[in-house]
Amino acid sequence: MKITPIIASLSKPTYKQFFRDITEYHEILSQIHPVDPELSYAYLVEQINAYRAEVLLTGWGSVSLPESFLQDCPTIRYVCHITGELRWLLPRSLIQDGLLVTNWGSVISDNVAEAALFLILACCRRAANAVMTMHIRHGWDLNVEPPVSLLDKRVGIHGFGNVAQQLTLLLKPFRCSISAYSPPVPDAIFEAFSTKRETSLEHLFEANDVIVELEAFTNHTERLVGKSLLDRVRPGGVFVNAGRGKVVCEQDLEEVASRGIIFVGLDVFSQEPLLPDSPLRGLENVFLTPHFAGPTADRISLCGKHALANILAYHLGDPLDSVIGVSEYDRMT
Questions:
Q1: Contact at 8 Å (CB) between 179 and 208?
Q2: What is the CA radius of gyration of the chain?
Q3: What is the pTM of this model?
Q4: For the residues of 71-91, what is the DSSP string, one character each?
Q5: Which of 52, 74, 119, 129 could form a disulfide with 265 if both were Cys (CB 3.0 to 4.6 A apart)?
Q6: Alpha-carbon distances, residue 262 vs 43, 199, 244 (angstroms)
Q7: Domain regions of the chain by residue span
Q8: What is the pLDDT of residues 234-243, one digit of tens each?
Q9: What's the pLDDT at 291?
Q10: Which CATH superfamily is domain 6-107+297-331 in?
Q11: Comparing C-alpha atoms, which of 236, 296, 320 is closest to residue 108?
Q12: How far is Cα 72 from Cα 42, in angstroms, rounded to an integer?
């Protein structure tokens, strides 16, 4: 089997991050030619055409591809995206025109779900207040309402993609009753994960002890979660966002959180990095993490292996995993 040249629109640090310590795909790795994404799109096209590459490897920081990409690079057949979201990378029309596209699929969904569970537990145990009390005030007693357990709680999830599905599995030992709101997801998937389908977002927010935001960011979901929904979270309840910051109206969230009535855990924000003077900072009922719910350092190579396995399958003529068609593209962030 001959592996044709592969162009990688990835910086050297990103390339090393995803492909370090991978030896079993040495034949494919030897054919990858990195092109610094800080250089122009014109240079990327020049390199693709010089190597007559059929495969383009992309990820965080890659050069965005215009609608003319397939005309500019007529040998390209496949874009192997090593990370998740890709609306910023390429337009829908390229997939409609037959470009094969894959991403990391569900490879790190359990890793993100783990971070969401961490935020839930941190809120239940009032960790923000405990950290401030112990580290900053050098005190002992909490000055918010006492911690609660996650055991036997009602958990509502907004969005029911791969991460939400994995979160339901992680919640099983806690005996939680789980419901979710995600109209495009088929009933069969809800049934497969023993999750109740909620009929409305309003009911999801008011009927559960813990709300987890995991919906994709699209034109339809931008700032969808605002004051009218957040006010429905019961006193002492938990709201966690480990999905996309722009799905939530952050100004409304700041107002609701500042009352100290609910407990909030956030890994994502409408503007990142979070501004130093953000009203969310310093609140005793708000637990913050710096968008680290993605792949951890010890598991990021799984994404690289997934990409290389797909490239091998492409050269063998075998089915690929995590193919992004038009319908998947439309549901993505």
A1: yes
A2: 22
A3: 0.93
A4: HH-TT--EEEESSS--TTTS-
A5: 119
A6: 51, 24, 20
A7: 6-107+297-331, 109-288
A8: 999 999 999 9
A9: 97
A10: NAD(P)-binding Rossmann-like Domain (3.40.50.720)
A11: 296
A12: 9
